Amino acid sequence: MYKASLFPEGLSQNEKLPIRIVSPDFGHIGTQSEAAYGVSNQLPYYFFLFVLKGSGHRRVDLESFDLEDNELIFSLPYQIVHLPESFHGKDYFKLGFDQECLSKLPKQYSFLLNPLNQPKIKISESAGSRLKAIFLTLKSLLKTSDTDPELILAHLHGLLTEIDSAYFGNAKRPGDAQLEKFISFKLFLENNLTDHPSIKAIAEELAISTESLQHIVKQYSGCSPKEFITNRLILEARRRLYYGEHSSVKELAFELGFNDPDYFNRVFKKVTGKTVAESFQDLS
């Protein structure tokens, strides 16, 4: 079975919260420990990199992103994150925390579902100054492992609220009914992915018509709900190929809810251009 990991033991900088911050002069885990994580990882926690001054590249779920001054990139739990091929950061912050930490915060942050499919965010100069101030405060708090968690959570809430605002920018905010429905669609899909929910069933769950669901998903993702679900399933297959030990296409297909391994293989090839076996060979 596919099992989730927890926030790595010994990584947290606080005794009661699973959280770690890194800057050029603070929080590095050391070359030997870093090597143990490998070149790429399927991180079981939320990860943020905010570049104030610098440039480089980062890969998230096999997509590459260029990073420059005042840009932030984030990844969600179980996305595949590669160490930067090149990174020249003079001033930056890295932050990691898991779902346990997030559950203690006073609200949900819509951007963490990445409804607009844009993990990289351009931060304005004014917002960048505010983010830097919060990161510096968090760094100060995490220098002592027994800091009151409530202090850390208060500043983490402010940080995520700032990022949430920057993420949506000029786009319609989560108060918009259609965006709320799209976020609900993504959340429902994440919770029921391997059950292969039908479009009709999802529309009924969201209390909208199938036509409205088609329009909303197309508006925010650029593809139909069926294509979105298929792409998400194949992405999950690629993640599990990357980190799992599967003896056959059949095993992987059944794990993802496909009753017909041959059909799964055809869908996989249609989306990726390669069969499961060919993709496994590429990763070996």
TrEMBL record:
One of its GO terms (molecular function) is DNA-binding transcription factor activity. Keywords: DNA-binding, Transcription, Transcription regulation. InterPro entries: Homeodomain-like_sf, HTH_AraC. SUPFAM superfamilies: Homeodomain-like. PROSITE patterns: HTH_ARAC_FAMILY_2 (PS01124). Gene3D superfamilies: Homeodomain-like. Residues 183-282 form the HTH araC/xylS-type domain. This is AraC-type DNA-binding protein. It comes from Pedobacter westerhofensis. The lineage of its organism: Bacteria, Pseudomonadati, Bacteroidota, Sphingobacteriia, Sphingobacteriales.
